[in-house]
Amino acid sequence: MTPPHAYGWRRLNVGVVGGGIGGMSVAIALRRAGHEVTIYERNDFAGEVGASVSCAANGTRWLHEWEVDVAKGDPVVLRKLINRDWKTGEPVSVYSLDDYEERWGYVYNMFHRQYMHAMLKESALEEKGKGTPAKLLVHHQCKDIDLVNGVITFTNGETAQHDLIVGADGIGSAVRNIIGLNPEKRPSESSCLHTNVLTADAVRLGLVDYSQNSALEYWGGQEGKWDKIVLSPCNGGRLLSYYCFFPRSQGDYTNQTWGTEDRPVEELLAQYPELDRQVFGHLSIGKEIQPWRLWVHEPYPYITRGLACLLGDAGHPMMPHQSQGACMAIEDAAALGILFDKDHFMGDVNESLSIYQEVRLPRATKVQSAAAKAAYNINERIGFSSNTDNKLYNVEDEKGKLTIEEMNGYDMYKHIDEVLARRKGQSFKEKEKFQDGIPVDLKLPNGTLVVEVARL
Prior knowledge:
D-Amino Acid Oxidase, Chain A, domain 2; globular; FAD/NAD-bd_sf
């Protein structure tokens, strides 16, 4: 082990607790920054199963920077966001993504979770690529961590010592509890059942081929009710991933877990007697119907302690209604990759983790709050929040809403440079152009500057 306060860049031995999307992402970022990375996964299979994963430009940009082979994830490139009338299925709000890549430099990808995970896992572990390939150890469930000396103890009796420990172990994080966080949470007012539909099956039955739209599609959500259907196409459009929300009073799944026996299709259909018959027909042939437990977490006061930090759902679990959960984990990974690279890391792990918290926690907390609002008002959702001329448009706070400009215009390099300059007592050279990573001249759809909103 290198002395903890050696000045100048040094190679770290990093332990990542959790081998999901966030864990693989940070392994990629840190191996490329020059470090030795070991991933510890508690299960015998490190992949994640189930549903679709949204990866907007603010996540996709890092996949490209890390030279991940995105095509191996078999994504759908989204072209629209469509909100449909609950009963008729007619579009009531559409946000076009036709100029999305031109505006933000990267496309909006929709992946199947298993394919995305396999794509990231290959990039983290493969011999080719920048840096030393990460190692993956399964059947290693974290039991305890010596936060001063960096020693992880596993339930199998083994121990491992690291210079830096990243807790990427998800919503039920063990690392979170070890660093002293006991989340305040409550069950969401809505429940969710997820199901997968094969496009070929729907077409064979004469149902609408939604895959042709290359769109993230919603039914409902405009009336302040909890009933909402979300359709995500993935696997090149061959698979349609449906998230089906309804009031928790009509079905409470807070004590059930994903991966158990499938729920009967009748249980799903019973929630939606008045739903548009086309999408109802899709749900009627749904497979792998699984409950998704939804909890609302209050923001955490910190995400680092000692030699450990939290990443993704372990550090800022959020409702799914902004489709930003994976992107926030990827951004976390990118921040660590920058802070520990040869241009930024000066040997003090604790100092770098302090900057990580300062950079990441406010942004992730704002998305977390916005996701909770979008649960019952789809106009709060990024994209639809820009459709101010829509007759159904209504948001809680026009100046406080989350927008596509704020999410995709963000420059993490500039944000980190700004924080570093402030800590060194130096002037940030681009202070007239950026504030907290946001261009000061970036305008919202209503003409307001993003930075002006942030200062309120």
